[in-house]
Amino acid sequence: AKAAGKDQAAVFDVAMRQEQADRIRLLERLRGAVDAAEFAVHYQPIVNLDDARPVAVEALVRWMPPGRSPIGPDLFIPAAEDSGLIVALGEWVLRRACADAAVWHRQWGTTVTVNVSPRQLADPHFTVKALAALRASGLPATALTLEITEGVLVRSGAHAAQALLHLSALRAEGVRVAIDDFGTGYSSLSYLRDLPIDVLKIDRSFMPADDADIRQAVLVRAIVDLAAGLGLTTVAEGVETRYHADLLRDLGCHRAQGYHFARPIPAGDLTDLLSEDAKV
Ligand code: C2E
Ligand code: CA
Ligand code: CA
Ligand code: CA
């Protein structure tokens, strides 16, 4: 039994080393990819629930290694965060998204929302970089929303204070701030009252399975009412069915995003989608 335990420890150790080696290799490839600009930004429409028309898009980054299939952000954003590479990558995404959206905004009034990681908001130069991205693209500040997760502003300490300064400065310029994945963190409700935010994105884990799933619907209703009372715009994520869309509209949720309406698509396809929508 003792020998078996020892063997198991050895196997575990090998697995750990393997995992560490994989992580290091991923990081090296990721660093090379940032230098070689092997990324693309795809866009998912966000629709107005009253008329199902696309009024905004979320920018979602993809890694496109040459000759291989695209890699989704869940697989590399955490490593990019830990290593700090997200600062350069995130700035590139913001510039790309502003440039693409400037065209859509001029033509159809479409706005864009971009994910910002905690590491980017800890960078003292973030406000300057974001304003430079806007200026270079010609996109008005009022057409840009930045998405952050609840933890960023709630944690006390220097990083939260720095993040708060950036968001307040950018909001003063007209940029809007959204709380992403709302309801999945551990923060208290008081921050909704106190912090500089404009939009609540209801996490997809709150979408009811069907019309018998009353408990989920009750939670969604409570979130929508709370947000409305505070003057925030609500966006539901993970809207996959007709039932979701109807329920959310009946509850007074403003906007929705999900496979029921559209998946994230390349910029060229999004241009086609918006011009088709403008015809009807
Ligand atoms: P997120 O910000 O919550 O983005 C929404 C994710 O849900 C996207 O996954 C989107 O493709 C997916 N999704 C959209 N509609 C549906 C639906 O109806 N059902 C389901 N099951 N999923 C849906 P994606 O593109 O794989 O992105 C994953 C996460 O990676 C994002 O979650 C975000 O946290 C992060 N991410 C993506 N792009 C960036 C970026 O440029 N910077 C940073 N910091 N993070 C990013
Ligand atoms: Ca997001
Ligand atoms: Ca989200
Ligand atoms: Ca998420």
From TrEMBL:
It comes from the Bacteria. Residues 23-278 form the EAL domain. This is Diguanylate cyclase (GGDEF)-like protein. The lineage of its organism: Bacteria, Bacillati, Actinomycetota, Actinomycetes, Micromonosporales. The chain holds residues 474 to 753 of 773 of the full protein.
